[in-house]
Amino acid sequence: DYASKWSSSARAHRRKVLEHIETGKITIRDDATLDEFLKLYEDTPVRDSEKWFRLRLTRKLFENTDTDYRIYIISVDGKPLAWALFIDEGTTSEYWVSFYHADGHPHHLGIAMMDRWMFDSYEKWIKYCDLDHMRDSWQSLGYAGYTKFKSSIADYDVHFHDMWVKIF
Hints:
five-stranded mixed sheet, 39% helix
């Protein structure tokens, strides 16, 4: 049970999310196309100064690729309010991008998204769910809340010092 290591508040939010999924208030789709994902992202007002950069980069990276990725769209009462894209590579699934409409905040859709991603990853025999990095010093304080959220569900904080790579 991967959620047993989550913080107590994250587990409480998960219980509420699971209740809403059971009653049909919250639904999670995993059959969206990249174009649908990008259109929703483009049309949704979000507080992210890098939104247009992320849109262009996501389109460029995933439009013509063989990369395995998963897209989830979460709706509340039939209205899409949260979206995310995760990259699957071997035994690792990596968070790429997500966004949430402000109307979804009371429903803890971030927890719903992470729970679904981790559950599906477990079912696919994926060993590592990479939540990406925490807030960089140059990023706005708005990222601090997201870092706190990720730390409430992550098992380990892994740092790479002097990482060596070969680029072709």
